[in-house]
Specification:
The chain has three domains: 2-107, Release factor (Methane Monooxygenase Hydroxylase, Chain G, domain 1); 118-217 and 312-362, Alpha-Beta Plaits, CATH 3.30.70.1660; 228-294, Double Stranded RNA Binding Domain (2-Layer Sandwich), CATH 3.30.160.20. Helix content is 48%, strand content 20%. The protein has helices at 2-21, 24-38, 47-82, 86-107, 128-149, 178-182, 244-247, 272-294, 297-303, 338-342, 347-362; strands spanning 118-124, 152-160, 166-174, 187-194, 203-214, 231-236, 252-257, 262-266, 314-319, 325-328, 334-335. Strands 2-3-1-5-4-9-10-11 form an eight-stranded mixed sheet. The protein has a three-stranded antiparallel sheet with strand order 6-7-8, covered by helices on one side. α2 (24-38) packs across α3 and α3 runs antiparallel to α4 (86-107). The longest helix is centred in the first third of the chain and has 36 residues, at 47-82. The chain is globular, with a radius of gyration of 23 Å. It starts with a helix and ends with a helix. Mean pLDDT is 87; it is low at 241-249 and 301-305.
Length: 363
C-alpha cells in the first residue's frame, strides 16, 4: 500500500504542474468571459461569430473538464487508500495513469496554431503508378486516423493516376487540435515492397510527400494582406472520376496569387462561392507557411520549431519486403504491425514526435 501512496502523491504533483502549463486558471476565466458574451441580446446576430464563440467555450470546457475529472479520480483513489480497498485502488491508479498521460500530451500542443483545423496534402513522388498507389495508401491511412479520432474530413482536391492511385490529394480536417497532432506528419514517407504492378514482383521503393498546414482565417494573420488585385481566378468543371463525392462537384476553382506565384485548387463543393472560400483558406495557409520558412530561419534550425514539408525531409520508412517494419527516422519508434499503421494506428508515432519536439523547445 505504501507504493500506492507514493503514486497518488506523484499524480497530484503532476496534475498541478500540468494545470500550470496549460494555463488552467486562465482557461476558467476565459470561459466566464465568453459565457457573459453569450448572454448579450444581440449575441446571435452574427451567427458565424457566435458559432465560433460557442465552439471555443466547448473546447475550453472539455480541457478544463478533463483536469477536473482527474482531480476527482485522485480524490476517490485517496479515499480508497484510506479504506485499504486495494483492488479498487489498483483500478483507479490505472485510470489516473491513462488520464495523466492524455493531459501531458495536451501540454505538447501549445503552438500558436495547434488548436486549428488542418489541411493535409499528399503528393506522389517519382515512380509512376507505384508511387501514385503509395500516395493513395497514405491518403487512406490519414482518413482512417481522423475517423478514429472522431474528426471530420472533406476532400478539397483529388487528382487521380491514369492506371491506379492518386497524383495528389488535399483534404481538410476539422477536429480539436487537428493541426497540432498532424503537423509532425509533414515530410517524405518511403515505402519498400514487392511491386503489385510488376509481373516479376520486383522489390520497389516509392516516395510520397505529406504537407500539413493549419486552416487559418484573416484574424489569425493580421500582418498578411491579400489584395483582390493580386488574385487571378479560374473556374472549371472537375474532371475527376473518383467516386460519389467527387462526381457531385460541378464548379471547381483555381486561384493564383500573382506576387508569390502560389496556385491552389478547390473542387470540394458544388457551388463556386464555397470553392472560392476554400481556395482563399488554402492560400492563406500556404502564404503563412512561406512566411514561416522565410522568417527566423536560424532559430528554427537550432530549435526545430518549424519544419516545412520537403522531399529531402524523409521522416518514416514503411518496409513490407523482405521484412515487415514501420520505423520513424526521427524518434526511432518502430513496429512490425504495418497493417495496423496503414489502417490509421499512428498514435505511438505522433505522440513520440510531439514529445521530442517539446523537449527540443524546452532546451
Amino acid at each position: 500500500m505504501k507504493d500506492f501512496k507514493e503514486k497518488l502523491d506523484n499524480f497530484s504533483n503532476s496534475l498541478e504542474q500540468i494545470k500550470l502549463t496549460l494555463g488552467f486558471s486562465e482557461k476558467l476565466k476565459r470561459i466566464t468571459q465568453l459565457e457573459k458574451e453569450t448572454e448579450k441580446p444581440d449575441f446571435w446576430k452574427d451567427k458565424v461569430g457566435a458559432g465560433k464563440t460557442m465552439k471555443e467555450i466547448g473546447e475550453l470546457k472539455d480541457q478544463a473538464g478533463e483536469a477536473k475529472r482527474v482531480e476527482h479520480l485522485i480524490a476517490d483513489a485517496k479515499a480508497a487508500y484510506e479504506l485499504e480497498m486495494e483492488r479498487e485502488l489498483s483500478q483507479k491508479v490505472e485510470e489516473i495513469e491513462d488520464a495523466i498521460k492524455g493531459l501531458e500530451l495536451a501540454t505538447y500542443l501549445s503552438g500558436q496554431h495547434d488548436s486549428k483545423n488542418a489541411i493535409v496534402s499528399i503528393h506522389a513522388g517519382q515512380g509512376g503508378t507505384e508511387a501514385m498507389d503509395w500516395a493513395s495508401m497514405l491518403y487512406r491511412m490519414y482518413l482512417r486516423f481522423c475517423e478514429k479520432r472522431g474528426w471530420t474530413t472533406q476532400m478539397v482536391e483529388l487528382s487521380e493516376g491514369e492506371e491506379a492511385g492518386i497524383k495528389k490529394a488535399t483534404v481538410s480536417v476539422a477536429g480539436q487540435f487537428a493541426y497540432g497532432y498532424l503537423k509532425g506528419e509533414a515530410g517524405t514517407h518511403r515505402l519498400v515492397r514487392q511491386s503489385p504492378f510488376n509481373a516479376n514482383k520486383l522489390r520497389q521503393t516509392s516516395f510520397a510527400l505529406v504537407e500539413v498546414l493549419p486552416e487559418l482565417e484573416e484574424v489569425d494573420l493580421p500582418g498578411l494582406l491579400i489584395k483582390n488585385e493580386d488574385l487571378e481566378w479560374q473556374f472549371f468543371r472537375a474532371s475527376t472520376q473518383g467516386g460519389q463525392n467527387v462526381q457531385k462537384v460541378s464548379t471547381a476553382v483555381r486561384l493564383t496569387h500573382i506576387p508569390s506565384g502560389i496556385v491552389v485548387t478547390s473542387q470540394a463543393e458544388r457551388h463556386q462561392v464555397q470553392n472560392r472560400k476554400i481556395a482563399l483558406t488554402l492560400l492563406r495557409a500556404k502564404l503563412w507557411a512561406r512566411k514561416q520558412i522565410e522568417s527566423d530561419a536560424q532559430k528554427r534550425q537550432l530549435k526545430g520549431e518549424y519544419r516545412p514539408a520537403s522531399w529531402g525531409n524523409q521522416i518514416r520508412s514503411y518496409v513490407l519486403h523482405p521484412y515487415k517494419m514501420v520505423k520513424d527516422l526521427r524518434t526511432e519508434v518502430e513496429t512490425s504491425d504495418y497493417e495496423s499503421v496503414l489502417n490509421g494506428d499512428l498514435d505511438a508515432f505522433i505522440e513520440a514526435e510531439l514529445k521530442k519536439t517539446a523537449d527540443i523547445k524546452a532546451h
